[in-house]
Amino acid sequence: MAAVLTTLTPNTGPATTFSTVVITGSGFSNVGPLTVRFGTQATTFTIDSDTQITAISPTGTGTVDVTVKVELDGLSNALPFTYV
């Protein structure tokens, strides 16, 4: 089963510097390799628990979809992140 995203905290961030974003949802641990993306950009992250990931937002512009891809289970739903 694919990971499910419920919230991004915060859901906005700076366009020109990195910032920490907490992703909450389910299906994050003991599922094999994960990839966290802000739009098309993969980013660095830490799996805190089955329901929380702490990610670093890359630089960007506009609003992008944040997704979590589980190698064996597919792509999560998307949540919007807006660069300000």
UniProtKB/TrEMBL annotation:
Pfam families per UniProt: TIG
InterPro entries the record matches: Ig-like_fold, Ig_E-set, IPT_dom
GO biological process: carbohydrate metabolic process
Coiled coil start-end: none
SUPFAM superfamilies: E set domains
Residue stretches making up the IPT/TIG domain: 4-83
Gene3D superfamilies on file: Immunoglobulins
Name of the molecule in the record: IPT/TIG domain-containing protein
Originating species: Nocardia bovistercoris
